[in-house]
From TrEMBL:
<feature type="transmembrane region" description="Helical">
    <location>
        <begin position="153"/>
        <end position="174"/>
    </location>
</feature>
<feature type="transmembrane region" description="Helical">
    <location>
        <begin position="53"/>
        <end position="77"/>
    </location>
</feature>
<protein>
    <submittedName>
        <fullName>Uncharacterized protein</fullName>
    </submittedName>
</protein>
<feature type="transmembrane region" description="Helical">
    <location>
        <begin position="20"/>
        <end position="41"/>
    </location>
</feature>
<feature type="transmembrane region" description="Helical">
    <location>
        <begin position="321"/>
        <end position="340"/>
    </location>
</feature>
<keyword id="KW-0472">Membrane</keyword>
<feature type="transmembrane region" description="Helical">
    <location>
        <begin position="233"/>
        <end position="252"/>
    </location>
</feature>
<keyword id="KW-1133">Transmembrane helix</keyword>
<keyword id="KW-0812">Transmembrane</keyword>
<feature type="transmembrane region" description="Helical">
    <location>
        <begin position="83"/>
        <end position="103"/>
    </location>
</feature>
<feature type="transmembrane region" description="Helical">
    <location>
        <begin position="204"/>
        <end position="221"/>
    </location>
</feature>
<feature type="transmembrane region" description="Helical">
    <location>
        <begin position="352"/>
        <end position="368"/>
    </location>
</feature>
<feature type="transmembrane region" description="Helical">
    <location>
        <begin position="115"/>
        <end position="133"/>
    </location>
</feature>
<feature type="transmembrane region" description="Helical">
    <location>
        <begin position="181"/>
        <end position="198"/>
    </location>
</feature>
Amino acid sequence: MVVGHMEPSKLRTRLACASFFSGYGLWLIWKLVSISMLSVAEGSVFNTMTHALVYGLILISILMSISMDVSLILFVITAGIGIAVKIAAGDVLLLDTALILYAGRKVEFKKIAWFTLYLIGAGSVVIVVLSQFGVIPDYLFKRGSEAVRHGLGFRYCTYLSHIYLNLVMLHLYVRDGKLPAWQYIGIIIINILIFIFTDSRNSFALVLLLMIGTLCLSIFRQRPWLGSCLRSLAKYSFVAFSVIGLVMALVYDSSTPAWKALNSLSSNRLAQDHASLNKYGIKPFGQEIEFAGNSLVTGGSLVSRKESFPEADKNYIESSYLNTLVLRGLVPFLAVLVAFSVASREAASKDDLLMCLILFVIAAHSAFDPQLLNLLYSTFLFWVWQECSAFFRKISMECAEKNKRD
């Protein structure tokens, strides 16, 4: 080999990696901007061209690194599901996710975590700072007639808190859960400030749970009860939260005081889930539904979606599990449960207690908010994909060995 030149295989690997990070990074920036007051109107040429450029970069990465293995089979299945959902429901998110996850399958997850942490962390800070200097609006929302909630430059007041939860989980992961005292304090202070300004309760509580759980891991790691508890939570929480949420939505009775109290505690989520399930039912690959959430419309407008689309359904489904089941269908719902169950069991079998804690927090967050399948908020989908690929590859090799012996 001539000095200064690179072997074709190494060159392809580097090009695939560079194309992946370029496409994934562009997708993250595009999606972050789209949930902020910097957003461009839906259906614009800018959005179409950006989406096309992302696809181009991701496809280059895939073509540079494609190989006939278990990951390719998983990709064909997930991309096929994504295409079916696009046809049935008009939703392209699953297809985007499948393409990006497959393109990043050979990249170490810790590198993806660092990249996301810096890019989304810096981008979020820029948006908040711009809103406080009056460059973009800091829109004020209200929870009924109660608290005033700041958007902080985002199209809805909870978006920043969901992003922050993901960033905290990524930070814990890349640091192996070992944080100095000042980082614990800093994370909690920022969490409290976000809560004061946005009144976002779920993510606020889960960040505190993460901090307490990580502290317990550093103090009581050798205690058998802690490991047993976290392994069980990781293995069963996704199925448990999804089943409990579905059953509660089906049997909800607004005339019963106990159900009324639970509905109030869930910020009317139970009533909305119940109404949507009864109205739309469940299809194999979802259905196109126009929901009118509380967020502002894209394009920097100060008009909410409820005002802009008065004919849209106001019973928005906030649970990731039920949202996937109704909007994207039974097949994607089952695929998601299988993927997270497999990955959770792998984490438990490897005694990766920090990941078990993170997976439980993701499962709990998904019971109340719809971000589970959105890579902007759910970077650990990369880890889940890689663990599932390794698991099915192991099964494939075991089957091949058994066939040889037979």
